[in-house]
Amino acid sequence: MRYILCVLFLFCTTESYAHPQFFVQFKKRYVYEESTDPGHQEWIRKIKTTRCHVCHEGSNKKHRNIYGQALSTLLNRNDRKNSAKIQRSLIAVEGYSIDPNDINNTVTFGDRIAEGLLPGTGE
Questions:
Q1: What does DSSP assign to residue 98?
Q2: What percent of the chain has pLDDT over 90?
Q3: Quick one: which of 20, 58, 39, 46 has its CA closest to 118?
Q4: For residue 10, what are the contacts with CB-CB under 8 A and spacing of at least 6?
């Protein structure tokens, strides 16, 4: 019984970095609800559908896609209430290559976002 309680305690107290505040700040930076541009409206639909998977992949929110991995080098769970730091990190990661091994930085997360593509997926 003691073992079961320990496992439950550890499971319940394990915290991932999937925090809605990060997604809220992402939307503030990249989603313009008032836009009438059809391309941007499609982008809004993608973001609203994708939600946490902008940074995460799979059902376990501890698993990050390449965009989430890049952001995690600048942010941690303690930053979830620091809107200014989240915004600075989003801006900084725009310049990161989607391929960390690409020394020429040919395609960046900012490029993908500007094209209306999700930054961390292979779409």
A1: S
A2: 60
A3: 46
A4: none
